[in-house]
Automatic annotation (TrEMBL):
Keyword Transcription on entry: yes
Organism lineage string: Bacteria, Bacillati, Actinomycetota, Actinomycetes, Kitasatosporales
Name of the molecule in the record: Fatty acid metabolism regulator protein
DNA-binding region listed in the record: 33-52
GO molecular function, one term: DNA-binding transcription factor activity
One of the Pfam families matching this protein, by short name: TetR_C_6
Superkingdom, natural source: Bacteria
Keyword field contains Chaperone: no
Organism: Streptomyces hundungensis
Key words of the record: DNA-binding, Repressor, Transcription, Transcription regulation
Length: 206
């Protein structure tokens, strides 16, 4: 492959991903056309198919990128927090934080989830990506709890499922009633109580 093409590929990918995020948010996954994404990115269909085989593959590239950013954000904030400050309230605050542009991703992922529920093949692929994200999130949450001297009463991956359900459910309500409910408000209020209820002090060997 020519060197120029190799150097341009990351830029092409980034523009396609940015364009897809905008088009998916505006039109919905089902209604979005590859032509619309290419036009928004300033590329031809050839450029699209040189990087992705389908809209689904493009969505999952967005999914993985978003997941990586969220996990990295939490990890960086956790690294700057002293162990003595890692209470359930502080851990909840790390998990509940919402970036200003999260509304766009919420629209995209909610729309795709509905699409996946109606399409078993897409549902299986989404479940696979969700499972990988849960494993990484569980490892990160487990490390935070251990630093705080806590351990889960059950499976960490189940706890991650509940945290995600609370976070996304609260987000949906806040985006419907933005003046009545700030995006992170419910999660920040109730997640500390959840963490306290489903954790216990680390059992020290006798």
């Amino acid at each position: 492959m020519p060197k120029g093409t190799t150097k341009r590929r990351p830029r092409t990918l980034a523009r396609l991903l940015d364009a897809a995020l905008e088009v998916f948010a505006e039109s919905g996954f089902g209604a979005a056309r590859i032509e619309d994404i290419c036009r928004r990115a300033g590329y031809t269909r050839g450029a699209f198919y040189s990087n992705f085989s389908s809209k689904e593959e493009l969505f999952f590239a967005l999914f993985d990128a978003h997941a990586a950013r969220e996990l990295e954000r939490i990890a960086q904030l956790a690294a700057r927090t002293e162990d003595r400050d890692l209470s359930p309230e502080r851990i909840a605050a790390l998990l509940a934080h919402i970036e200003p542009d999260e509304r766009t991703w919420f629209l995209v992922t909610t729309e795709f989830t509905l699409y996946a529920i109606r399409n078993p093949g897409a549902a299986a692929r989404l479940a696979d990506h969700d499972a990988r994200l849960r494993e990484e999130a569980a490892a990160l949450l487990g490390a935070l709890l251990a630093r705080a001297g806590l351990e889960p009463r059950g499976e960490l991956t189940d706890l991650v499922r509940v945290v995600v359900a609370l976070r996304e459910g609260a987000l949906g309500q806040s985006y419907v009633e933005p003046e009545a409910l700030q995006p992170a408000a419910l999660t920040e209020r109730f997640l500390p109580h959840l963490l306290e209820a489903v954790t216990k002090p680390v059992t020290k060997p006798l």
